[in-house]
Amino acid sequence: MENRSTKPTSVSRRGFLKMLGGVGLAGIAANIAGCSTDPAGGKGWMPQQYQVASSWPIQVKGRVPIDPNNPSIVRDDKKCILCGQCIEACEKVQTVMGYYELPIKDDITCVNCGQCTLWCPTGAITERDDIDKVLKAINDKNLHVVVQTAPATRVALGEEFGMPAGSIVEGKQVAALKKLGFDAVFDTNFTADLTIMEEGTELVKRITGELKKPLPQFTSCSPGWVKFCEYFYPDLLEHMSSAKSPQQMMGAVVKSYYAKQKGIDPEKIFSVSIMPCTAKKYECQRPEMNDAGQKAGKPNIRDVDVVLTTRELARMIKRAGINFNELEDAQYDSMLGEGTGAAVIFGTTGGVMEAAVRSAYFLITKQNPPEALLELTPVRGLNGVKEASLEIPGAGKINVAVCSGLGNARKILDQVREDIKQGLPPRYHFIEFMSCPGGCIGGGGQPRTALPPSDAVRQARLASLYTMDAKIYKKRLSHENQEVIQIYQNYFEHPMSELAEELLHTEYTDRGKHLTAKKKA
Amino acid sequence: MAKGVLVDLTKCVGCGGCTVACKLWNDMKFDDNNPTVGDKAKLSGKNWTVVHAHQVKNKDGETVWRFNKQQCLHCLEPACASACFAKALQKTKDGPVIYYPHLCVGCRYCMIACPFNIPKYEWDKTFPLVSKCQMCSTKIARGEAPACVSVCPQGVFKFGERDELLKEAKAIIAKDDKYIKEIYGEKEVGGTSWMYISDIPFKDLGFKTGLGTTPLPTYSHNFLRYTPFVAVGWGIILTGLYHYTKRRNTISKETNIKG
Lengths: 521, 259
Prior knowledge:
The structure holds 2 protein chains of 2 kinds. Chain A is 37% helix and 10% strand. Chain A is of the alpha/beta class.
């Protein structure tokens, strides 16, 4: 055995210094040679061009506040260059920032519309990324993962893969979703048709006086618009249709009707939606959006679990290495997969109105509308505020208005408020509101094809939706959707039945107490 | 004349644009461990300014959100500068208290001296320095406002002559009932270049209160003025002792040899 008591060999001072010097030199050499433990490659997006010394750029204008807990959008400070484009979208287009008195109360006022994400030139503001939640669910063998796609994503998704603006990629989108591993792919068009049945019935009941709610009726499909009304015009909330948005109707139907028909435990269903919208991420988290769960006695079950934007779906497809442009068209799954031309135009401004009018005509007259009413041109196009007036036998003259972009909504809302104040009869029966300019085709979750968002791109997407309505879809009337007829026969009985009220309708929250709206906006 | 900034906390919506402006102008890196905005916002070697979010009760007992922008207050008589024997911290005639890294010896007395706990040490660096807001002194020298001030979309800040800002602040809080009748920075430790008005008591927003109105250098100057005498006197004493012991050793050696 080694003799541990032996004295260690002594190190001379010279030897010690030489050793230290050697170690030091080796360290410096390693550092210079780049022998760090970090992996090779970049560390993220760096706005290098702004990190050089120069005078203060004149175009620096600040930015909008974003709550770190905002369910829809997030901002990366490292990419923000304070260009003020988000303010442009929020203040000038959507009239949210700057329309409340300071000091603020207990909320960072945001309608979650995501228009700022479309305007941000550096991509600092983006949707909150929920892709991982969806991938986790897909990989969980115990879960039945269903997905629904909004009308407007099918005319925009292709732009992320180099196709021209407005390319129709409905079949490819379905094929991609099936390849990604979703168990069932449904079409939000189905519930858009269902929305028309519910909302149209409600409108007819308001007009005939059967329902004791005031006219005009406001549409309720755009969650950004709904929150805007809750913030700035809570006194007009009784005008809002109680019908849920198509996304939430689909969520509730999937975890009740579909679950029952298929014999699947609603708890084992994971419901995803692909939307052109960032506000939908917020909408699915609204506490009251758990009607299917309430019905099953398990209020923890959400009607829609995760919402992905069109951009997120594109990212998912790219990440999975799917060659989107080469995909063969696939079909939506049955039971909740049929849609009509009336539903597909939900994706653009004026579409909900036109679809509603087509079915309202049927609900009042029990006859299909004449051909002329299928092209309601005054409510088409990208104008911010549009009006139309039409004759429906038995109901007389129906006046409608359509606005998109919340700045335009204010014009109509202030007028409605003023008319009520002066005791004047309502000048409209039905008003469609969409939060984003152009409607969902210009939604905050759509591909950033032009910066800032341009009308040329919106026009191309809009035209494609009308082409689908007129030329591609076989049916153009919501009440002719065979699967909608079936769901009423098998489940809901008739529009606005007790069960339909329970699952397909909702109520709204007065958010006026969270801010002091400016008197004269 | 000395410049200053008046901060109206009631106008802040917490966008944090000022914190990004600071990074862009000063080429500061982002601090992954300490956010610049929110309830966990924290000043650090990389964060010269942060916007701290507070949930507080207002006069009517309602819970409200308020934001407090923190950065160096640039005292009229800075304790950090008086504590720095290397003159690495200096107050300019324009108002900013500037840090000169080439003079710094790294003693960190400034960090102990600062009543607002502002200067931070670059712990993560091999050759660390002290780090704090410079009030964009190079911008001010050109007559421009600091970067954070020039970017605020809500008009929270006003940059100008300190004396005039003080008058204006007094007029604002006298006229409007929502404000508390106090200007933070008017008198604190002798006054600061940054001044705040608010509708919520400052102590609820994380401000250090009860600091007194006496400039801190007054205390240190009372004995620090003896520093040259102490330094020279100590040198004389030590030299004297050296010669005394040297002489004693020589005498003792001589005695030993003789003995």
